[in-house]
Write a structure and sequence with these properties.
alpha+beta; 5-stranded mixed barrel; 2 helices; 33% strand; globular
Length: 140
């Protein structure tokens, strides 16, 4: 038994138009932004504006402000983010110690500075620190 399927010209044009508009209306895939890992930061980067992406291991508050430490940052790679005490007012309504808790993945933008052997980015504005949402695995 053979089936015949025929489309009217109007139906075919409408179907082609529908497919064409959805294909053309899609945004192009977003390009992955260039970033550097905390363990890759060296004194050679001092003075450069960087985008750093890493996982938080510890957050401390002391007399100079809030210090955020990252996975991969060790004595050999002493990188951290400093939110100065004088700029904590930019984080009103939010406690940076709780917001940027260990395990979170952050993207930090700013100029790399050095004091003694310590390499850090001074975050004076909230927009310099972005929380990257984790991707969930799909169950099969």
């Amino acid at each position: 038994m053979r089936f015949r399927f025929t489309l009217s010209a109007a139906t075919a044009v409408g179907f082609a138009f529908l497919l064409g508009t959805t294909a053309l209306g899609q945004d192009p895939p977003a390009e992955e932004e260039e970033f550097i890992e905390p363990s890759e930061i060296t004194a050679e980067h001092v003075g450069e504006s960087l985008v750093v992406r890493g996982q938080v291991t510890r957050v401390d508050r002391n007399n100079d402000g809030v210090h955020i430490f990252f996975h991969g940052a060790t004595l050999n790679f002493p990188f951290q983010v400093l939110i100065p005490l004088s700029d904590l007012h930019n984080w009103t309504g939010t406690d940076p110690v709780k917001r940027y808790s260990p395990g979170r993945i952050l993207k930090i933008t700013g100029e790399l500075e050095q004091q003694a052997e310590l390499l850090f980015i001074r975050a004076t504005e909230r927009s310099q620190i972005e929380i990257i949402p984790r991707r969930r695995r799909r169950r099969r």
